[in-house]
Amino acid sequence: MQSSLEPAYIQDFIHFEQHVAKLIHRAGWTVETAKTNQRGYDLVLKKDNLVGAVQVKWLKNNVTAPQLLAFANFLDSEEGKKFNFGLFVTTKGFGGPAQALIRSWGKNSKIRCVIAQENKLISFDTGIGIDDEDNSGYPKPNLPKKVYFGVFTCKGGVGKTTVAAHLAGALALQGFNIALVDLDPEKNLQKLVGDGIFVPNTTGIGTTIQVFDEGDWHEDSARDCQIVICDCSPALERNPEELVKRLDYCIIPTTLNPLGINKHGKVIQDTVKEIRELNQNAHLFVLVNNFKDPGVRRLKLLKNVYFDAYKEISKTDDKFHCIDPEEVCIRASDLLYYWGIHIIENPTNPASRLAFDLIGGRCYPREDFISLADYIETKAGIGFLRNH
Ligand SMILES: Nc1ncnc2c1ncn2[C@@H]1O[C@H](COP(=O)(O)OP(=O)(O)O)[C@@H](O)[C@H]1O
Ligand SMILES: [Mg+2]
């Protein structure tokens, strides 16, 4: 995927991490790799009484503010306090919001932010030229396994972007770092969530939702993310085949009204067939979005038609789940309807936010998306992620 013009040291994460370790080593430090799945940092560097944590960020684009905030929060946590300083090393550079953040920290910050070039770490004061011989003596990190979600329907306006972003929010609240990948040419995800969101929490480290454009996406750019959620293009064939093949779960939003069921029912059946041609393993969930309680009698009628539309697939496909809206659905809410108003309110410096604000102690979107995450975990299990 990488252009052949890229120098070898930024070819992929492994080469880059080795390169960074080598530059630091040349500058007189001892370098160690962190344990596989160690959260918060990739390398440890030591000299005399000084111990530093290094975050190696291999990116095709600039560093974002949430990525930096996650590292800053790690350094403030119990585990992070063991380090005298943190070094944040990246491939390309730092984006506008990230630069503003670094400036706001001032000169005495515990974090040094640098770009690793061929021969030196820029703004790392001890940068020394290196020769380019082999790196084979250096231990190769294992890439931690990730869980992939796709949010997909053949129709626009059903809630793909809304569901992708807020499912990310619900999972980030549970302690996972999430990569959101924008595969839809409309690019609404990037308009609404910017370059991502940092979600602080009480355990100290916090989590991030990092947003990637399709062109910037590479698994190694999100090594610290346990979960990847793709806001898919409504034309299945426009989504990168390798990503569709990787999906562990696919959420298919629909609406529970007579026309919605008629219109989407057939489309969803065809969609499932198409997905299955590429991917036989993903758990597929049909999810009712924009749910308005129609009253007991009508709900019963609508549910019959809804389940009937997917009866045939459910019989033959044991990984196809048609979620009972009485168990889990995403209710219609003003918070979701007006999500995005923050962009219009402040177009020059838009905030990144989700519709998870509390109103009188309740927040439908937050409750609904947490229930959705729980439902998926119960039905299909994301258990291995819990063991880290
Ligand atoms: N549960 C909901 N309640 C209220 N409005 C919603 C809900 N889900 C989506 N919407 C609204 O529907 C519109 C389309 O949703 P979006 O996520 O952009 O769809 P898609 O990505 O499939 O095109 C959004 O403007 C959003 O305001
Ligand atoms: Mg969309």
From TrEMBL:
Domain of life according to the entry: Bacteria
Pfam families assigned: CbiA, Mrr_cat
Domain CobQ/CobB/MinD/ParA nucleotide binding: 154-294
Domain Restriction endonuclease type IV Mrr: 15-104
PANTHER family: COBYRINIC ACID AC-DIAMIDE SYNTHASE, P-LOOP CONTAINING NUCLEOSIDE TRIPHOSPHATE HYDROLASE
Protein's recorded name: AAA family ATPase
Origin species: Calothrix parietina FACHB-288
Taxonomic lineage of the native organism: Bacteria, Bacillati, Cyanobacteriota, Cyanophyceae, Nostocales
